[in-house]
């Protein structure tokens, strides 16, 4: 066993032990279902911001995005531009109203403030849905897409353990699932949020260290640009048109349309308005007054991290003489090639941190959907909080096992799985949520139509495009367009109740009154 493997084992072991220790600490502070799902709504600005980042960017940031740049060059950077705009927009446009609305909206069945813990329960209460279809359909969409989203993280875990330890996918996924489930089950939202802070710091530092070392070896940005151009000048084109041909072992021109590259990349930003694991941080922050600071911290981290990830992709093109068989391994390969085994172990642990920081959040939201929007909503509305807490813990395990099966027997890359789930959530929930907090006259029929149209289009678009259109357009674009259209067309089938109007006015007044010193939550600091 060589030194690099030994050091990696030591650093991985220490990192995993630290995550479990945080889970044990959070276990003592998790006494109810509200604590488990949203941490009692008491995250401060820094924790909420970094937790949103860590739960968002996952292995996609350290594996998927550098790999996409490595394959196709600058054209794929439009994804980063779209994400930066979408992330900033979601903090500014959606976060304040969602934080207040989910807590203050009247419970559609019991009356009084609902303190909605999930997006599904919020939608039912917001629209006073008499059919309960909103809650059921939204929970089903969450489960379907999270199976694929969590699976993407486990695929990344398998690839990382194979790269570092030569471990087969089965044992690698079992180790990853075991650790993630352990601290998530123990501490719920608090454990996930606090581990996210550590993981966000590790991810950002890893993305900074590797480019600094690599650029020194390549002779700065001038040497980097020259090295990339030698492979193909098209790699530096902002409209794409170049891709790595694995059979030929070189970069070749493609027939991809420039407008499709740009629109598809920018469309990724729309996804932020509908990702339940990210929106949970908006719902769990201490008060609306903490959101501006959290937004600055979060967006700054995201923009710099994505810039560094794009740089890593280009560095891989210039640094390696022979094209990589697996482009998504460009970051781990650079780490092993450029750094001492001790440093390599720490940086590789950051990739594991990226994967785990998203998978744990997604497991938690999926488990909440099963418990809050399944068992409590349709089986036992008066279930004891401790009963719900333990059911949530069991469902975390169940969802993790299902996602592990998809990761083991599926045949998709990290980027493919993330793109599929991202479009599903972005189109299925994004338009519905944005309009629900801004449009006074929106009804449950419009919300349901938009959710079904967006989610269904995201699921079917790749098949339709491949067989009939051949555009290569990202599913988010048509799915969002059809979701908005369905909301507008079917909204008139239901009516706005006086209670819905009263809730809307009350939330508007509270959000606008924050500047004068009012607050939507008085939870303890975390």
Report the structural category.
mainly alpha
Low-confidence runs of at least 5 consecutive residues: 518-525
Percent of residues in β-strands: under 5%
Major sheet size, sense and barrel closure? 2 strands, antiparallel
Rg over C-alpha atoms, rounded to the nearest angstrom: 23 Å
In DSSP terms (H or I, runs of 4 or more residues), the helix count works out at 18
Helix content: over 70%
Q: What's the rounded overall pLDDT mean?
A: 84
From the spread of the alpha carbons, the general shape counts as globular
- What is the string of SSEs from the N terminus onward? HHHHHHHHEEHHHHHHHHHH
Strand line-up in the sheet with most strands: 1-2
The span between the termini is 42 Å
The total count of strands amounts to 2
